[in-house]
Amino acid sequence: MSHPVQISVCMAAYNAASFVGAAITSVLGQSFRDFELLIVDDGSGDGTLEILRQFARLDPRVKLLRNDGNRGLVYSRNRLLQCASAPFVAIADADDICEPTRLEKQIGWLLNHPETGVCGAAVTFIGDSPPGRRDDVAVYGEAQIRFFMRLLPCFWNTTTMYRLGLLKQAGSYRAGFDAGAEDYDLWSRLLPLTRFANLPEPLVKVRVHAASVTAQGSRCFENVLSVSARLLGDYLQQPVPLAIRTDFHAFLMRGTIEATACERAFRFALALYRQARRLETPETLRAFTQLLAPAAWTHARNLVYSAPGLSREMARSAFRMQPSLLARGEAWGYVIRTGMPRTATRWISQWRRPARTGGKPV
User: Which of 60, 178, 270, 327 stands 20 to 30 A from 341 (CA)?
Assistant: First the structure.
């Protein structure tokens, strides 16, 4: 191409022959045309390279790179960034489908919001995904993204667009994350440098299949929790051990957890909640309360016989944070059984009173 382009679309491909053609076609069919498509073949052995060569011959926007063997995702992504010539970089996975207006809408947002350096979007699902699967990753609004990013990733990597200068300033992708969460680690280092945005319109179709990272998320679970523990430690201004972060994840997900680990997670949750009350917007705090209070209530019921003291403490905290829990059918049976009816009656009388969190301090 004879003139500088505005977007470098970066795609890493490894043994993606079944899907990469459709992924490339979706990029080349974008309504926004001023881009280059950089594709690196990471030592594929299934015919991927031949498909990439065909596209490179047919469209001058396609620039093909080839690794000397299977070097992994971190190496491949960094090589793509080194070759990018545009001020904006869009990530596209080799098995996903970009909607035709994806690049147009994301670069439009970034050009109109110069303070924002990272832009993602909602997704829909194709392939082996269960019918009606909901997008449960993307978080919207700068304040909520900044808070919830400390808990878990808030973006689909395959939807992200960045300012290239910020990626280089953050140090690009780091070694040690080939098992996954290299994107989450990058976002954690971008948090102090820029603002984030997620567009609520689905702009990418994420393909779920046996070999996809989306389907095999457990491979990078420890990496995700390690990054989260570091971010939460910065937020709370004290180290957060990985074991506590692991317990806290099980607590929030309402999974089975033994009493000692549950108490550790609950104490940590209260410390995080109190810090959030001091630092976050009412909307962000309300969203966190809606996640935390039902989790505490679930564990309170699960431990009502094996750890009654802890159970009552968690129930009290849950009802203070979210009095509407008392409207559930099982709530009054619990408070009567555990000797809490007078306290519960007082809380229910305060239900719907205006409050910063929708509940009471804990």
Answer: 270
- Position 279 in a domain: yes
CB-side neighbour CA atoms (13 Å) of 72: 11
Range of the domain at 309: 241-349
Task: List CB contacts of 82: < 8 A, sequence separation 6 or more.
Answer: none
Say yes or no: 77 and 139 in one domain.
yes
pLDDT at 18: 93
Q: Give yes or no for a contact between 317 and 270, defined as CB atoms under 8 angstroms apart.
A: yes
Question: CB under 8 Å to 179, separation ≥6 — which residues?
Answer: 219, 220, 223
Residues 124 and 135: beta-carbon distance below 8 Å: yes
Determine contact, residues 12/77, Cβ cutoff 8 Å. Answer: yes
DSSP state of 130: P
| pLDDT at residue 335 in the model | 74
46 within domain boundaries: yes
Specify whether 217 is located in the same domain as 261: no
Low-confidence ranges of the chain (pLDDT < 70): 1-2, 129-132, 134-136, 210-219, 340-362
Looking at the structure, tell me whether residues 185 and 296 fall in a common domain.
Answer: no
Let me know whether 158 and 303 are in one domain.
Answer: no
From the CB of residue 174, how many other CB atoms can be counted at a distance below 10 Å? 13
Mind listing the pLDDT tens digit for each residue in 302-339?
Answer: 999 899 999 999 999 999 999 898 887 788 788 777 77
- Between CA 353 and CA 267, with CA 143 as vertex, the angle to 5 degrees is 65
Number of domain units in the chain: 2
Both 163 and 246 in one domain: the answer is no
In a domain, 354, yes or no: no
Of 190, 64, 220, 40, residue with least CA distance to 120: 190
- Which DSSP string corresponds to 230-292? HHHHHHHTS---HHHHHHHHHHHTT----HHHHHHHHHHHHHHHHHHHHHS-HHHHHHHHHHH
Task: Let me know if residue 361 belongs to a domain.
Answer: no
Domain end position, chosen among 223, 258, 289 = 223
For residue range 202-230, list pLDDT tens digits in order. 999 999 876 655 544 556 899 999 999 99
pLDDT of residue 231: 98
